Amino acid sequence: EALTMVAFGCLKDLFDYDSPKSIRFRSVGCVCVKWFIYVVVAVYICYTLIVHKRYQEKEELSSSVRTSLKGVAHADSRIWDAAEYTIPTQASLNSFFVMTNVIRTENQRHETCPEYPFAKAICSSDKSCESGSVDIRSNGVQTGRCVHYNRTLKTCEIMAWCPVQMEESPPVPAVLRSSENFTVLIKNDIHFPKFNYTVQNTPPNFNSSCTFNKITSPLCPIFRLGDILQEAKENFSEVAVKGGIIAIEIKWDCNLDSWFYFCSPEYRFRRLDNKTRSLYPGFSFRFARYYKLPNGKEERTLFKAYGIRFDVLVFGTGGKFNAIELFTFIGSTIAYFGLAVTAIEVCFYLYNCSSCCKIPFCENLIRKKYETVLMPKQVMFVSFVDEPHVTLIKMPLETSLQDAEGSIFENQPVKFYDPRSCCAHESRENHDSRETELRQLMQSTSPPDSLKWCHCGRCKVTQKYHEQLCCRRTDGQCITTTYWFVQLVLSRDTLKKALLYEDPFQELRGGNANSHLRRAAYRQYIHWRFGSFDLEDRAVIPSCCRRLIRSTYPDVDGNYTGFNME
Fold first, then answer.
1. Mind spelling out the 3-state secondary structure of 300-338?
2. I need a surface site. Which of 38, 59, 157, 234 has the fewest CB within 10 A?
3. Fold topology of 62-108+172-319
4. In the chain, pLDDT over 70 holds for what percent of residues?
């Protein structure tokens, strides 16, 4: 049975809908802030949706690159064509190398010769050289002899390709500086597997005599090397001396939607290596060309090639409309409109935390918006007739309840109105009779002496702090002398109607009638002065009002169990 009840409760909660409660107030400043943020968020969403195409499904491209260089140069007493200055790159397939400068060491043969001078190769006698030793910087294998490198310097003899290449700076200006006018054709094919779409960078009306220009021919795939260096903000003549690494970036941003198709490459250029470094600047490597002599011996020419390596970097995405992507983006950005509420709430929070000047409008709004939940036994609520709000006072009391400091709990209390307790139209005779009876009660129950905490002159003497409460904060007329107190709180007809509204069969005759009427009078006063029955448990009725209610509807034995509700 217990499991059944739990299951039934859970199922019942499934059909309950919770809706947040909001407060509405007029404020030009808050409304302007809200709509400003709304407009900014709306503009951001529209911009992102249209410009960044967030309604599309995106896919990275797959790419292949082929290059073809053309150009002839006359330098160093020889003709250099594409077969000589274009050397297969040692990097990825999407790179090509163009030689721009060279140091040649000709007629090298397998024999012995002095090592090029460096710290470990310099010697003074054969003891300094170890036969068969090889240093990481050596050009060959030591024979164990110390020989003259020149008239003033001795180095260890080596078995190597002799004569060894000298470590010298590259020629200035560069030998192949005219390679600035060489051209390269870059063929780039891309493919989007998800969309099954393939495209090339060569336009349909491709003119083989065109040359790339960022303004006049931005889609031409034929590039002049000098123009590439110029677009990368480099000087070709300076780079050609020691070489470098240049990136040719091909960016594809393809819109594959039929109603707004666009898929063309965008070319950009930049330098990749650090030209300011002092250790091994530029880009260079060595290679050799071998020859067979008539006597059967082998000979070679060693080249130290300086040049520019061009790395072709292809990247980009393709997009096509997808309803799921569109709804996902819209759903994720709707939450941005909550920033308006958050910004305003932060302002109110900072104001609430600050101790500077207080603004009545903000104070009223904060009281309405934030509710402090306290344990019933920790607080008491009081309402003075000469103050427009309910005051919250925390326990324990160190002085009389009348003089205790409290905080504003609620705004202007709701005036008395309830179908259970609406006043009946009494005849003039009954009304005059009740006023006469009230005067007699007041005269018979007036306190002998005025109390310090009492400002109306009709409170009862007591030593208990929590019972020392007057209906007023300042001196003046007691609320019990007003017509509405008689009609709303003391009227027997009004109290009977309120009790019978709750329980039509309630018996209001006999000895318990006064007890029921007294409790109903307490409730009527709380609803009238506190605006709600929600504060009934901890709302404190002033001593003067409680005294008159008890006098009007006395207990048979004179025993009263509480100071607010009995």
1. EEEEEEEEEEEEEEEEEEEEEECHHHHHHHHHHHHHHHH
2. 38
3. atp-gated p2x4 ion channel fold (2.60.490)
4. 87
